[in-house]
Amino acid sequence: MAASGGGGEEALREALLLAPPAGDGNGNGKVEKQVEDLEEIRSVRAFLRHAAEENRRLWSLAGPAIFTSIAQYSMGAITLVFAGHLSTLELDAISTENNVIAGLALGLTMGMGSALETLCGQAYGAKQLHMLGVYLQRSWIILNALAVLMLPLYLFAAPVLRFFHQDAEIAALASRFALYMIPQLFAYACNFPIQKYLQAQGKVMAMAVVSAVALVFHVALSWLLVGPMGMGVVGLAVALNASWWFVVLGQLAYILMGYCPGAWNGFDWLAFSDLYGFARLSVGSAVMTCLEFWFYMFLIVIVGNLENAQVAVAAVSICTNLFGWQIMVFFGFNAAISVRVSNELGAGRPRAAKFAILVVLMSSVAIGLAFFAAILALRDVYGAPFTESPEVVRAVARLGVVFAFSLLLNSVQPVLSGVAVGAGWQWLVAYVNLGCYYLIGIPVGYLIAFPLRGGVTGMWGGMLSGVGLQTLILVAITMRTNWDREASEAHSRIQKWGGSAAVKALGE
């Protein structure tokens, strides 16, 4: 199409940009009428009716997403259980590789894959189903390029680990295990885009089923390779790689078998267009996610410099282990609200997006209060199953209050991060995280822990100031947001990274 066309040509261009593709996305050959926005709620009864319906939608997304997160988190945990039956050295080395090398790769690939939560969710809400497959392929290109750039981290893991003052023997074995785990790196790069693509369409049950089968497969294969076949560390690496690729191929088979009608039309050269803008949003997602992940890694590193560091690190490790399981629950809420907000904004329903945020916050705060009360009630005993040291149990008990507040704040924070992803605010939240966590939280915690001699409780409590401030800022941003404008920007985003490429391709 020529850029100088007249009014008829401009109308045709606008129609191509604004309308969904021919058909309703399910092959029915018709265009669905846009669903009306949520009606104004004028009574308590109406509020409760709409809240019940919204809760049903949220839990239909959050429930399978929570199970998927726990199942995939458990594959690494089960590998560590088998490693612990080999020797302490194998356990330490595999744990180090899993937390440092693979942990960095996980954070980056999961973060960059989160861009699809914004784009696929908004395109799905706008009935631009044909663009979901294109976005998926663009993300594969970007994340696999990132995986190639991260290869030196795996190839030269030993000097990296020694730089962080790891034991030489542990670093050597962890480095060898990292070489075996390179296939997992590329599985991450393929898996997270597929998950966001399926989440945007509400295909979360398929993800849960594949993850459940993969978890059973992983347990059986790990036992076979480590037990009867006696393959040791190599067997654990083969089992973990195979299990992650089982997840990828199982989900991909679901897509290729036609269970995502209209959203997958085969490989498309449009995947190579508009990569810069797509990559920028992906990097923003990665920065936002990694700044959150690394915040609690800094807690353990700094606590290691306190007096009686072994007890302090053990106590914090127990709490962060429990924190990891809790956060899997709220990852489900994160995914659910991201899908709901992006779908509603893409469909031009800003009032429904706001209502979804209110309902999910009510649910997550209720669960957070339950965790908060449970930790305070069990503060003297919840550390006992993890250690036989009375000193460590007492140290864990002293952390009970700050740990309980951490769980409460982190019942809200992942939800607000999910709202940010659904609305496309990744870079804004990345700046908020940088300021609150690293310019306020860590310095305040360090000040209380060392000059004021507040110890590990002071360190964690001070860092909570950053989490609390971040939560307040995200609440304020969410409350002050003009959601009508966000719906308009979602529409523009679909034009920029979807429709514009389609118009250009048709013009050629």
UniProtKB/TrEMBL annotation:
Q: Name one GO biological process term.
A: xenobiotic detoxification by transmembrane export across the plasma membrane
Query: Does this entry carry the keyword Transmembrane?
Result: yes
Pfam short name (any one): MatE
Membrane-topology annotation of the record: Multi-pass membrane protein
Swiss-Prot/TrEMBL keywords: Membrane, Transmembrane, Transmembrane helix
The family assignment reads: Belongs to the multi antimicrobial extrusion (MATE) (TC 2.A.66.1) family.
Could you identify this protein by its name?
Protein DETOXIFICATION
Q: Which organism is it from?
A: Setaria italica
